[in-house]
Automatic annotation (TrEMBL):
A divalent metal cation 2 binds at residues 127, 151. SUPFAM superfamilies: Metallo-dependent hydrolases. GO terms for molecular function: hydrolase activity, acting on ester bonds; metal ion binding. PANTHER family: D-AMINOACYL-TRNA DEACYLASE, HYDROLASE. Belongs to the metallo-dependent hydrolases superfamily. TatD-type hydrolase family. This is TatD family deoxyribonuclease. It comes from Cobetia crustatorum.
């Protein structure tokens, strides 16, 4: 069994065939999905998906990519949603992206969401691009009760170890399938068993060989195959390890 720990099934690109996308993945052994919201406007759709399907788990957060949509009320909306919705598994997707503008506002919004994770005793799903050291600093200062997930980890072994020491696991997705990602693949080969989980970030981050196509949760199986190869073990073992890791970090009952 596999879990896609990060996929944006709420995005409109899935509106036409969402049920088939899920059926394809379930048939391939992908038994659960974590869907992190990205804007306050998307909360209801993500929550509806999780209510309609027992395999879908909802996280709620404000993604730095959509900064222009996060007005002053967005944080209040997030707080209210966390307060009123049982079963939300994490705060996220939130974080920092050095490719995007307005770093000061990005950090403010991230810190505010870390405070909510602490208040509601939830893990966080962190988007972190070219900012591993600074993000680790913010996570450490937030003193989170439950750690979380560094989504689409890309960094050095030292940065990986630092996130693990803070109670986080690393999300591995399409990036590891590219043979040119040698540094990342080396880090993946050396991570401790309890330190990583699998994801697709669908519809984004296509795997090697699928560039330009919509990504889908079914492809988490190919991520598992590459990770198994890098770690010289079986896909089944990777499935067992990563399922246990997602269950532990998000307290899923799957
Ligand atoms: Zn994402």
């Amino acid at each position: 069994m596999l879990i896609d720990s990060h996929c944006h099934l709420d995005f409109s690109v899935f509106d036409g065939d969402r049920a088939q996308v899920l059926t394809r993945a379930i048939t391939a052994g992908v038994a659960a999905y974590v869907v992190p919201a990205t804007t306050a406007a998307s909360f209801e759709k993500v929550l509806t998906l999780s209510r309609e399907s027992i395999q879908v788990y909802a996280a709620l957060g404000l993604h730095p990519y959509f900064m222009s949509e996060h007005d002053d009320e967005a944080l209040t909306a997030l707080r209210n949603a966390l307060n009123n919705t049982p079963g939300v598994v994490a705060v996220g997707e939130c974080g920092f992206d050095a490719r995007l503008p307005d770093p000061q506002r990005q950090w403010q919004l991230f810190d505010a969401q870390l405070a909510l994770a602490r208040e509601f005793s939830l893990p966080v799903i962190v988007h972190c691009v070219r900012a591993n050291d600074q993000v680790a600093k913010h996570l450490r200062e937030a003193c989170l009760p439950r750690g979380g997930i560094i989504h689409a980890f890309a960094g050095s072994e030292v940065q990986a170890e630092r996130f693990l020491a803070l109670g986080f696991v690393l999300g591995l997705g399409g990036s590891v399938t590219y043979s040119r990602a040698q540094k990342l693949r080396h880090v993946v080969s050396r991570l401790p068993d309890e330190g990583f989980i699998l994801e697709t970030d669908s519809p984004d981050m296509p795997l090697s060989g699928y560039q330009g196509q919509r990504n889908e949760p079914v492809r988490v199986k190919q991520v598992a195959e590459v990770v198994a190869e890098l770690r010289a073990t079986s896909v089944q073992h990777i499935g067992e390890l990563t399922t246990a890791n997602v269950r532990r970090v998000l307290q899923l009952n799957v």
